[in-house]
Sequence to fold (414 residues):
Amino acid sequence: MKTHQLRQPHCRLCGAPLSHTFIDLGLSPLANALVSPDNIGRGEFFSPLHVWICDRCFLVQIEEIEAPAELFGEYRYFSSYSTSWLQHAEKFAGAMIARFGLDEGKRVVEIASNDGYLLQYFASRGIPTLGIEPARNIAEIARERGVPTREMFFGAEAAASQLREGYAADLMPANNVLAHVPDLIDFLEGFRILLKPEGVATFEFPHLLRLIEERQFDTIYHEHFSYLSLSVVCEALRRCGLRAFDVEELPTHGGSLRVFACRAEAGYSESGAVADLLDKERAFGLLKMNGYDGFSESAARIKYDSLEFLIRARRDGKTVCGYAVAAKGATFLNYCGIGPEFVQVVADRSPYKQGCWLPGCRIPIVAPEALIALRPDYVLILAWNLKREIASELDAIRAWGGKFVTAIPQLEIF
Fold:
């Protein structure tokens, strides 16, 4: 960690001036801004991917380079293309129905509901649902599936408008969206407004502790404004008249938290898991500036090891392809300087991505069948958190001795 003296942005949670760098990944394109055939001859927008750590409240964050409407107005991430994520969603729905007694007299309002991947499991049980999703193209697909969805960014004003229309919520899931919000206070205030007095909000987000521990620098990109610990989330909730009463550690996205929150005056007792995890974060060093030392050097070592492997494979006449057009893949490839001279193509199941190119590095995106036809010696799995699912889907490459590669937390060939 180094002190930066040339500029001084301010913390989006507590307002303190920011002067300490967590990691600087250089100039990077927007991770989900895939290059379409119509735009292949045009330039791209690159901006600093510089991550700061607040020395007052310990929120890890990047500056707001692009407005959310530019980042999320038209989106190419569809949750339903991951089998394991659908299984995760179905399991969550069943658990929430059982725990909070949800039935046809209750309402579930999901924030950042994507293509209806989660709400479908509540709706199939007769529970009224509403999705709030800012991406026009994704919201339309959700509606086509029969999931009522409003196109809007969520915050205090949006919550008030939905409350006036009678959409007070018993459960408000918000999966992998809290990190995407530039104004944390306005966003969380919306939950306080829209929740019923004993309503529950759940927030799932990648855990900062695991990001550091597992050297997951590729989960940093412009769409992720914040990198969150339970300690920081508890403070943000407190500022908005909310509180965390339970937390679960999840394996998803390389290690996530599911935080259960309610209004400050609601009747839920705090579970011991909250205090235990806060103690764990404190012991790890997340409430001390020196707890963040060394992360940048770890990312650089992963870069060196990955390039050494790819250079050796290229010189040996081996073919390397990639799999999974994930935002983390765009960060990894661009930070490491990996282009089509090293990774011939990247395959993805989503037809909305096929036929485009990854931003910055300009590696073409193909269907999985096209990858198989190339008979690669190695498949670099960019969505390393789904490596078991992907390795199973691409088991055919073993027929000619093909192997899989992941780079994080260290280079592994299997």
About this structure: Residues 295-315 form the longest helix (21 residues). DSSP finds 13 helices and 18 strands in the chain. The chain has three domains: 2-60, 79-292, 306-413. The radius of gyration is 21 Å.
